[in-house]
Amino acid sequence: MLKTTEQLIERALDGVELATDISHCDHSSKELRRVLFDLAEDGAWSEYEGNGYFEDVHISEMSDREIARILIRDYANA
Question: How big is the CA angle at 76 (ends 24 and 2), to the nearest 5 degrees?
Answer without folding.
Answer: 100
